[in-house]
Amino acid sequence: MKNLSLIVLMIGLSLFFFTSCEKEEATLNDHLIGTWNVVEVQATVYLFGIPLSDTDQDPTGTMTFNDTGWATQDYSFSILDSMYTQTGSFTWRPDGDQVFVNENFSNPLIWNRSINEANMQKATYSDTISINDIREFTLTFTR
C-alpha cells in the first residue's frame, strides 16, 4: 500500500513539474508592446463608391504601445498627393487577431492583423468619414 501511494505521489509530482515548466507562448500583447517604426502605409479611399488606391513606402515616425493599454503615435505619410500626420495618444485592446483602437474616446477602430510577429506587425482598418468617403488603411510597422 505504501508503494502504491509513493508511486501515485511520484506520478503527480512529475506531471506538476513537467506541465508547470512549459514555456508560455507569447500572447498578442507581448508582440505588440513596445516602439514600432511605421514602414509602409497602404490606402484605398472610396469616394462615391469609386476606389482610389495608393501606397507610401517611406512614411516617417513611430507608434508605441505600452502594457497598460495606452499608446502614442507620431508618424506622417503621403497618400494620393495629400500628407497625413497622426499624433497623440489612444487606448488599445487586443482580441484575437483584432486590436480595438480608441482615439478621442469615440467608436473604436478595429484593426485586423494579418501579420503578428515579434518584429513585424501589419494591420488593416476602415475609417468612415461620411457615407460617400470611406477609407481603408493598412499599416506595416517593424522594430
Portion of residues within helices:
10-25%
Uncertain runs: 4-26
Counted up, domains total 1
Strand content: over 45%
Net shape: globular
Biggest sheet strand order reads 1-3-4-5-6-7-8-9
In angstroms, what separates the terminal alpha carbons?
60 Å
The fold-level CATH name is: Lipocalin
Q: Judging by the overall fold, what is the CATH architecture? A: Beta Barrel
Task: Please name the fourth-level CATH homologous superfamily.
Answer: Calycin beta-barrel core domain
**Helix/strand/pairing category:** alpha+beta
Largest sheet: 8 strands, antiparallel, barrel
CATH class: Mainly Beta
Number of helical stretches of at least 4 residues: 2
Determine the mean pLDDT: 83
What is the H-and-E element order?
Answer: HHEEEEEEEEE
What is the number of E strands?
Answer: 9
